Amino acid sequence: MERPEVVLENSDAVYDFYRGHRQHRLQAWGAYAVLARRFRPRVGYAAGAREVLRGLISERRPLLIVINHLSQQDPYTVAAAAWRSGLRPVIGRTRVLAKDELFVEADLRRRIDMMGGIPVFRGKDHGLRAVNAAGQRMIDICAERMAGGDSIAIFPEGTCNDVDPTQVQSVGSGVGHIAFRAMKLGARPALVSLGLSYGPRADPAVEPTKPEAISASFHFGVPVPELPARPAEVARLVRTELQQALDGAVAAY
């Protein structure tokens, strides 16, 4: 299927394409390995987290991977951390939600597609009413991918935190609806929280530069194998678990 232009007016064709799109797994592994060498993240785990994560992956459970969002560097440092962590086996089988503007420029889109990107049309960019139908399609596509065995990685805060990098900001309902719809399709998604810290920031509104993003601290919370039944309960759980993971990342920086 030909790659459609990623614009809101074309969202039906966009999500038809990403329903079945498959990244080249070996290329993804190579790209993630290069990013790991470039950014050299430090990865830690809560007690027992590594073992639970390994068990979930061996059972081929789809993972709902949530990460706090601090800067435009995050997709690259998170990819680097995935390579250096227990998530390496699911590289190439994980879809990553990314804002639609990253899919506009052709070379960047090829890289984002190769890394498993699925476009998100955000209300803050296009207006809440305008993106409602596209948002529902995106959630359905994510649920279908999870029911097919893929994992989903998401920054559930929805935008970069320029308030306090040590505190998870408001978590949108989308993450809860993805889990809820995936479960309705028969999937058993497990929650994996990954906290990220670039260290103390004199001004949280100023994002770290590429050099400052090197050696970021990542910390895995203990995965949650069974999720609540209601989307709002999932969203509350995500914020609680992600804050604990972020606390670990901050403490280990």
Describe what you observe in this structure:
There is one protein chain. With 253 residues, the chain is an alpha/beta fold. The protein has one domain (8-252): Glycerol-3-phosphate (1)-acyltransferase. The protein has ten helices and seven strands. It has a seven-stranded mixed beta sheet with strand order 1-7-6-2-5-3-4. Helix 7 runs parallel beside helix 8 (174-184) and helix 8 crosses helix 10 (231-252). 49% of the residues are buried. The model has no long low-confidence stretch (mean pLDDT 95).
Defining traits:
253 residues, 10 helices, alpha/beta, Glycerol-3-phosphate (1)-acyltransferase, Phospholipid/glycerol acyltransferase domain-containing protein, 7-stranded mixed beta sheet, acyltransferase activity
Structural domains: how many? 1
Strand content: 5-15%
Structural class, from secondary structure content?
alpha/beta
Number of helices: 10
Domain Phospholipid/glycerol acyltransferase: 63-199
Organism: Nocardia macrotermitis
GO molecular function, one term: acyltransferase activity
Pfam family, one: Acyltransferase
Task: Describe how the helices and strands are arranged.
Layout: H1 11-20, H2 25-39, E1 42-45, H3 49-58, E2 63-67, H4 74-83, E3 94-99, H5 106-114, E4 117-120, H6 123-126, H7 128-147, E5 151-154, H8 174-184, E6 190-197, H9 210-213, E7 217-220, H10 231-252
Parallel strand pairs: 1-7, 2-5, 2-6, 3-4, 3-5
Antiparallel strand pairs: 6-7
Helix pairs in contact: 1-7, 2-4, 7-8, 8-10
